[in-house]
Amino acid sequence: MPDSNHPHAYTLYSYYRSSCSARLRIALNLKGISYDISPVNLLADDHQSDAHRALNPSATVPLLLSHRPPFAGFAIGQSVAALEFLDERHPDPPLLPPPDDLAARAVVRTLVAIVCADIQPVTNMRVMRRVRALGADPDDWNRQLTTDGLGAFEAVAGRHAGSYCVGDSWTMADACLVPAVWNAQRYGVDLTAFPTVSRVFDSLSRQPAVVRANYLNQPDTPPEMRAKEEAK
What we know:
Helix content: 40-55%
Structural class: alpha+beta
Oligomer: single chain
Mean pLDDT: 95
Strand order of the largest sheet: 2-1-3-4
Order of helices and strands: EHEHEEHHHHHHHH
CATH topology of the largest domain: Glutathione S-transferase Yfyf (Class Pi), Chain A, domain 2
Distance between the termini: 42 Å
């Protein structure tokens, strides 16, 4: 609901394991934007509730809800649209190369699309449930399709990466890559086949914006998962 007196600029409806939600957590952290998290338990089908559908007709996460004029009450239910909104509303630091570098901007958008159109939609929880219902192995499905997608990402990033996916500055491509690799690790993808992806990911993983966004550091992270990781 619109609330210009809300203590934070945004509320992010998020699930700790959602890679789409993590993209926005990374971007919000990187830009130093004040936000709180409203957890949505996908395993409990909270996203299917009438209340959530009223906010996001897609019945998905993330959902980014603005609390500040002139956008108080404005909600965005798709992660890439929300990334672009945040970058235009809060341009420092930018998540796209300069406007006059059309080629670099196109490369960033290509990498974003590889993750957000080629990998994530066919490996998300909704699809995995259907794969299981059809009698196939959802983990193997996820592993194969993620491997294919990261192969494409590697081929493009390998030609354009510096310290980051494109050159030596943060872009949307980096915010999308990190959660995709978290998912790849979860399902046992062999990341040694992707040296550029691995190098950039390892560097990004140490940055405070990413550490704070990590699925292990969320308010809805199960305590037993956090404890298991800490015990390693």
